[in-house]
Structure formats: structure tokens, C-alpha cells
Task: inverse folding
């Protein structure tokens, strides 16, 4: 069985930062990634608010630079999903889809996954007009009319991005004021190709072979109406990705992992970093900072509990 001092789950900014710090501490370090290295930022066109990132830094290129830096420091990256973590003598057993691994300490940095609309037609038309990633799918909607559900930073930023391709972008927000603030909001509100429909929820995704429209509910009048569309992008926030740790660590009511300021969870030897935490800000800069703290604290823990392999 492969044995590591520190196992990190998730290769987004939190996990890659943790990997960099742990490897530089000469810990035998592994990061597991089941999906895309770089995490959610790879689905963002430009990262504008990570201090020092080049002006044209795409989420993908920033993630790639983080990966390279962690690898150069000696961190191993394994493309495998960890489905279960169990405590054992001297550490933890991590059960992957292919192999089992052992680690003295674990850092959970698995981030979050999009919250679904949960309405009829959504699952049926996913990939046929329903999307959760504008940078992945925007090019399929050149000259077409699309909708965006949500009113937070993701919905507003991605709606603005979509106007580069689509002829018209409607944003459906469930209340009368966007959650997104500042420059991101102003840019959308001043975009002539975008229109925000306030007090609207998506009740149904309509289609035949592909999406043809949505049924909307006006939350003030209670009336439903049909809007023809070629696609619908869902940005209704995110939910934590913690199924491998069910019952192991304490979470808040919404499932976000509770930590102290040293990124320690309720389970000794298990740390959490980045979006997966119950935190006040989910940004690249906070994820990277969390990862650094988690790695240094996990290193101290390893040296005090069983030592390095
Ligand atoms: P978010 O801030 O949680 O916003 C989710 C949006 O979806 C809210 O407008 C919410 O409405 C709406 N919503 C949630 N559940 C819904 C439902 N069942 N039906 C209809 N609407 C629903 O999520 P986010 O925009 O993905 O952002 C997540 C985090 O990443 C935030 O901390 C954000 O600041 C950060 N982020 C930052 C940037 C950036 O450029 N700096 C970009 C993207 C994301 P209500 O407003 O009514 O709650």
C-alpha cells in the first residue's frame, strides 16, 4: 500500500497550495483529484482578483501554474476518486476507486459542486442545453438566446461572459436585488445584451431533442410563463462535496465542514481547506491561504503523531 505523511483530497487552489507547503516541509505528500486539476477556477474565463495574477490569467492557466509549482516541490498527484476515509492505527486509510492508500494526516480540499435547479427537464436536458459551465459550453450558443439562473457572482460574471457568444442573455433571479455586488454587477447591468428578470424562478426546462425554453414563475404575482431559449446555464450556488467523509467530521446545517482557525476539523488528524469549509469568503486567495495553514498544521500533527514515513 502507498503510504504518505499527508494526503490531500482535491486539486483546486486550496489543495494545490496545501500540496506546495507540505512538500516544501519535506512531507511525503499526495493530492488526489477525481476531476479537473485547478478545480472550479478552470471554469472561469479570467481571474481578476487573485493578487499578482497576470491580467490575462485564465482560471485554467492559474490552476496549471499552481499544479506545476506543487509538483516541482515534490508533491505527487494521483487522478483517482477517494470514496471513503477511515481511521486506522497510526493514521487513515483512504479508499480510492482503484487502490487503497495510507496517510498520517488528511486535508479535505474537495470544494463544492453546483447546486441543481431540481426541476423537471433539468436532468433530461443536461448536455442538451442545460449547462453548469459557461467557459465549457458558451461556444455552442453563438448567436443564440440563453438564460442564466442565479444572482450571485457566478451567475452575474458568467452571464456577462456568455454575451460574447449569445445574442441575448436573460438572468433569472429569485428576488428583486442581485447578490453580486460592485464591478461584476455593474458590468452586467450595463451590458446591452443582458437582461435581468427579477423575482423569477425556473420551474421547468422545456425541450424535445434539445432545450427549447423554460417555464418561469413570477414570485410576486405567482404567475407562470414560458420563455423560448436555446440553453439554460445554472449558477444557483454550490453545495459541499464531502460524501467520502460522511459521519467523520462535523459540518454545519448546509453540510460545509466546520474548522477552527488552524483548519482542524472535529476529527483529530483531519483538516479542511478552501470552499468546502464553513467560511465567510470563497475566493482563490482564501482557498490558497487555507491550504497553507492546513498543510503547516497537518505537518505539526504528523510529527507529533506517528512521525513521517
Ligand atoms: P452564491 O453567492 O451562493 O449565489 C447563489 C445564487 O443563486 C444567489 O443569487 C441565490 O439567490 C441563488 N439561488 C440559490 N438557490 C436557489 C434556488 N433554489 N433557486 C433560485 N435561485 C437560487 O453562489 P456563487 O455565485 O456561485 O458564488 C459562490 C462563491 O464564490 C461566493 O462566495 C462568490 O463570491 C464566489 N465567487 C466569486 C467570483 C469572483 O469573481 N470574485 C466569481 C464567482 C464566485 P439569493 O441571492 O436570493 O440567495
Result:
Amino acid at each position: 500500500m502507498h503510504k504518505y505523511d499527508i494526503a490531500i483530497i482535491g486539486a483546486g487552489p486550496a489543495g494545490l497550495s496545501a500540496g506546495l507547503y507540505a512538500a516544501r516541509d519535506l512531507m511525503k505528500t499526495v493530492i488526489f483529484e477525481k476531476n479537473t486539476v485547478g478545480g472550479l477556477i478552470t471554469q472561469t474565463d479570467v481571474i481578476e482578483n487573485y493578487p499578482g495574477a497576470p491580467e490575462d490569467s485564465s482560471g485554467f492557466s492559474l490552476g496549471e501554474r499552481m499544479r506545476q509549482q506543487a509538483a516541482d516541490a515534490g508533491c505527487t498527484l494521483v487522478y483517482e476518486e477517494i470514496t471513503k476515509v477511515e481511521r486506522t492505527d497510526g493514521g487513515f486509510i483512504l479508499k480510492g476507486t482503484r487502490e487503497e492508500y495510507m496517510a498520517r494526516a488528511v486535508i479535505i480540499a474537495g470544494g463544492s459542486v453546483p447546486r441543481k435547479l431540481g426541476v423537471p427537464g433539468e436532468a433530461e436536458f443536461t448536455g442538451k442545453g442545460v449547462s453548469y459551465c459557461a467557459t465549457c459550453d458558451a461556444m455552442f450558443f453563438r448567436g443564440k438566446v440563453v438564460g442564466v439562473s442565479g444572482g450571485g457572482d457566478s451567475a452575474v460574471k458568467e452571464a456577462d461572459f456568455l454575451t460574447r457568444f449569445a445574442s441575448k442573455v436573460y438572468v433569472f433571479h429569485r428576488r428583486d436585488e442581485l447578490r453580486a455586488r460592485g464591478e461584476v454587477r455593474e458590468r452586467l447591468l450595463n451590458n446591452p445584451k443582458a437582461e435581468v428578470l427579477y423575482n423569477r424562478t425556473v420551474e421547468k426546462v422545456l425541450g424535445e431533442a434539445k432545450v427549447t425554453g423554460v417555464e418561469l414563475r413570477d414570485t410576486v404575482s405567482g404567475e407562470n410563463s414560458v420563455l423560448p431559449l436555446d440553453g439554460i446555464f445554472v449558477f444557483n450556488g454550490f453545495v459541499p462535496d464531502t460524501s467520502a467523509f460522511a459521519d467523520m467530521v462535523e459540518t454545519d446545517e448546509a453540510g460545509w465542514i466546520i474548522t477552527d482557525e488552524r483548519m482542524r476539523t472535529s476529527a483529530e488528524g483531519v483538516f479542511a481547506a478552501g470552499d468546502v469549509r464553513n467560511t465567510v469568503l470563497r475566493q482563490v486567495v482564501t482557498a490558497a491561504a487555507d491550504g497553507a495553514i492546513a498543510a503547516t498544521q497537518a505537518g505539526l500533527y504528523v510529527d507529533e503523531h506517528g512521525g513521517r514515513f
